Structures are given as C-alpha cells and as structure tokens.
Amino acid sequence: MPVMSVIEGAFCRSGPWRSFARRRVLPWALAGHPLSGDVLEIGGGSGAMAAGVARAYPGVRLTVTDVDEAMVASAGERLAPFPQVEVTLADVTNLPFQTARFDAVTSYLMLHHVIDWVDALAEVARVLKPGGALIGYDLTDTRLARAIHRADGSPHRIIAPDELRDGLRVAGFTEITIRPAWRGHLMRFHAHRPGAS
Ligand SMILES: C[S@@+](CC[C@H](N)C(=O)[O-])C[C@H]1O[C@@H](n2cnc3c(N)ncnc32)[C@H](O)[C@@H]1O
C-alpha cells in the first residue's frame, strides 16, 4: 500500500538520494550510537540506509520493513547481496514480530508519514528488548515542511519536537534525547525502553 506520492516515492528510490543517504545521512542520523545484535528498520523505503548499515556493521542482523510493496521489492533487490539482512512488508503500527525481539529500532524520515505515529511508537516499544534503543531522525513541524507535503499530496502528520517527546513518554520510553538540526527543520532522536540492556 503506497503511502507516499509518486514524486516522493521516486525521490526515495533515486540514485542521488540513495548515495547521499548512505554516505552522509546515516552517520549523522546514528550520531555515534553504534548498532549491534538484532536491529529493525521501520519504513526503510528503497533500502538506502540499510545498505549503509549492512556495510558499516556486518555483524548486525538487520530486518528492514516498509508498508509499501514497491519499496519492499526495491529494498529486497538492493539488499540481496547481504545475507544478514531480511526485508519484510510490515506496517509499523502492527509489527509481525514477537515482543522484546530487537536490540535497536531505527526510523529515518518516516514517522511523519504515519498518521497514527503514537501507536507506532507503542509498537516499537513492544518489539524492543528492555534497555533497547530507538534511534532516528525526522522532519519537524515547520511551515516549509507543511507546504511541501500539502503540495506533494502524500498523507502526513508532521510532528513537533515536544509532541514527539510526549509521544515517546506515553509509549514508555525513557532517557529521551531530541536534538534539532538544520535550523529546526529536522530533529534527531534517541530513546530507550526501560530495563537492563
Ligand atoms: C520518506 S520515506 C523514507 C525512506 C527511508 N527511511 C529513507 O530514509 O530513505 C518514508 C517511508 O516510510 C514508509 N511508511 C510510511 N508509512 C508507513 C507505515 N505505516 N509502516 C511502515 N512504513 C511506512 C513509506 O512507504 C516510505 O518508504
């Protein structure tokens, strides 16, 4: 089920974005938090960030999910050379994984496409092991972001940093860090499911 417009979907699959995402955005988004163990990427799109993770962290068992069949097909092709990576169709508000399975969940530029993003955070908390981390970045609620998405026509619900902090608390996360970037147009976030790591 595509949730992005044709334009945004094409952008996500484009070569320039994939290269920029893998080389520049991934290290910035991880902000020095190393990945290890079982890692889930939600809304992984064409697999650009996952390809970077597979190269940089070959010991990570990475599960890449997306709700859009076309994105899953594209990511599946791209990530086929990496046996430690699995690509699966899944809606982040109803993940087909057992409770407390993952050491970390990553979310790159996808939460603002999830109308029920508070439910998504609850699902992410459910599948994280106690002590596991949610790491990612997203757009923030600026005039520019709203204008682009209104013009583009993709369903969206852009999130302000304070709303994200409240949503993470409601979902049970602790040690929440939200750092604005790019003059407040983006935010990086990091939060933990309480318990032993
Ligand atoms: C802007 S793209 C970002 C893709 C990728 N994370 C990247 O950084 O290149 C947002 C992605 O989120 C996916 N998405 C939107 N709603 C979703 C949902 N409810 N569950 C899973 N994926 C979703 C879209 O299909 C799309 O591939």
CATH superfamily: Vaccinia Virus protein VP39
Number of helices: 7
- The residue ranges in which pLDDT falls below 50 over 5 or more consecutive positions are none
Query: Which class of secondary structure composition applies to the elements?
Result: alpha/beta
State the order of secondary-structure elements, H for helix, E for strand. HHEHEHEEHEHHEE
Beta-strand percent range: 25-35%
Largest sheet: 7 strands, mixed
CATH topology: Rossmann fold
Given this structure, which CATH class is correct? Alpha Beta
Q: Under the CATH scheme, which architecture would be assigned? A: 3-Layer(aba) Sandwich
Strand order of the largest sheet: 3-2-1-4-5-7-6
State the helicity in percent bands.
25-40%
* Number of distinct beta strands: 7
- Average per-residue pLDDT, rounded, comes to 93
**Domains, number:** 1
Cα-atom Rg, whole angstroms?
15 Å
First-last Cα distance: 35 Å
The shape is globular
The hetero compounds bound to this protein are: S-adenosylmethionine
Strand and helix map with partners:
Blueprint: H1 6-13, H2 15-30, E1 38-42, H3 48-56, E2 61-66, H4 69-79, E3 85-89, E4 102-108, H5 117-127, E5 128-139, H6 143-152, H7 161-170, E6 174-181, E7 186-192
Parallel strand pairs: 1-2, 1-4, 2-3, 4-5
Antiparallel strand pairs: 5-7, 6-7
Helix pairs in contact: 2-3, 5-7
S-adenosylmethionine binds at residues 3-4, 12, 21, 42-45, 48-49, 66-68, 71, 91-93, 108-110, 113-114.
Task: Give an overview of the whole structure.
This protein has a single domain (6-181), classed as Vaccinia Virus protein VP39 (Rossmann fold), CATH 3.40.50.150. The protein has a seven-stranded mixed sheet, sandwiched between helices. By secondary structure, it is of the alpha/beta class. The protein has helices at residues 6-13, 15-30, 48-56, 69-79, 117-127, 143-152, 161-170, and strands at residues 38-42, 61-66, 85-89, 102-108, 128-139, 174-181, 186-192. The model has no long low-confidence stretch (mean pLDDT 93). Residues 3-4, 12, 21, 42-45, 48-49, 66-68, 71, 91-93, 108-110, 113-114 line the site of S-adenosylmethionine (SAM).
